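ugh ok fine here u go
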Amino acid sequence: MIKEYILAFLACIILSSIPIATAADVEVRAKLSDTRTIVRTPVRLEIVVEGARNAEVPRDIGVEGLQARYIGQSMEFQMVNFRVSTSSSYTYMIVPLRTGNFTIPPLDVKVDDQTFRTQPISLTVYDPGNDQQSSSPAPLSTPTPTAPGDTHLATDAQTRRLAFGVLVVPKTQIYVGEVVPVEIRYYFHPDLPVQSFDSVPSLIGDDFVVKGDTKPRQGSQIIHGVRYLVVTFRNSIRPLKAGELKLPATSISCRVLVQARPPSGTMMDTFFQRFLDPIPGVAQIQQMEFGSEPVVVHVKPLPEENKPDSFHGAIGQFSLNMDVSPRDPSPGDPITLRGVISGEGNFDEMGTPDLVSKEGWQFYPPSSKFAISDDNGCAGKKTFEWMLIPKEKKSHTPALEFSYFDTAQNKYVTLHGRPLSVNALPLVSAAPSATPEPSPVSSVNPSIPSGGRDKFRIARKLRAESFQPVTACHPFVVANGGALLALLMFLGYQLIRYHAASDRGKKAALRRSVGACRARVSTAQGKDFYSSVVECLRLQSQIISGKDTSGYSGDEVVATLGLKGEEAALVLKVFARYEESAYGGAQSAVSAETRGAVCMLLNRRK
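structure:
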């Protein structure tokens, strides 16, 4: 506080030593920072009053087609031979609203009781596309992108501007469908502090499509010794037809901090504000709008000569990579073939690469996803995925072929993706094993000793049998064999009962699973609907056949269930839709008619 009081005291001493100016000592004049500009590009108007500290200047400058806003007042002091002179400057911002030649009329400035009048000033507002006067400073058109610190961006006249916009296009010769990055840059002088942005610029036209990020990037750039604030919006355009394309002028609305004009006839000038800030009402927020000039580019059609059959609209610079997984699947399992397109270009409009050497494979339309890698949507990578099912033993995947128009070389380029090695086998249905027939048991007819044999042989036989162990005796063998046979029969009976009970339990579990699938079918949509129907039909086939039918095809299910006519055609249609939704990129919708027919079929198979 002490420092501020001392400075204020010194200021009062200096001001008191200044002699009172007479009318002959006062001089008033007006000047513009630039006498030529374009629409929405502001210039500064200054009213300079020499020899007086306070003056009353007009609050409004009424010129049709021009918008004037008061910015603030500044004061300068000079001391020569102990004589102090003062000079006050009152600054306005002049924003042209249309093209034409304008005259700022003489302005009345009141100093004490005297009235002074400024000289009239001419201002030319022109369209840069139609300007033919090369002797005057050219406006800032579409320069090539410059690095920070570049001091050759604008002329001396342009560096005096408080704010201006530039539409940056890397080239003016482009092709139909080509994606071209563009930047909209706005430069703000340090004397014009920007507080916030109320709107973002937009490129609107019928002959091109715009895409990009609305989030601005802020930086700075030195132009002829002045560090400008640079606000950049990144977009991309894609022309829709050949001919001359005019990118329109863009504008941005922002809030800036400007100095309020002090009340006339008071001692509150800028000199005191330097010591007494902040003071309520000294500065205020005002809304302003700045624009850039339009740019014209020439759009050429794509050449028809040497256009390959595999060209499907891709324009730019790209590379192709392939991948497959798994490489050694189980028999009948699908594999996923991926084709990755990377680079810069019109990813949204490019078609699908072509499959080459696809014999022996069953495939479906691919799915795709795009990952962006820049702000304006020109660079990234797009991944295509095919689900391939082998119909026969295959050792390599199909090849890929992708063609695009290279805008750097002005010609068509074809990329070839070579086949990848795999070990893929088709699904082979197991044939029912034949039940082996029991081999006939040969009957053995024991020989009965014929009657009339001599007594010696009978006695010898009796002596031989009397020395045999009891386990070798025929009655023992018969008795124990019968008991063992009865035991085996009992065990077999129990085993049959166990298996019968197990089969009943399995069938009951299968019927419960069928009921759950049938309930899902009544409410499921899309892919879930067809997968639930297929699961229900396979479970019903397993109940009938007693075999594992989880891998059954539509024909095998129809044969197992004994379906014919419309029911067989409905089942085959459901399996085809299921495979499309499971392995293809597209999702099939379910009509009410199809749902009703499927529910009736499943209810009849309870």
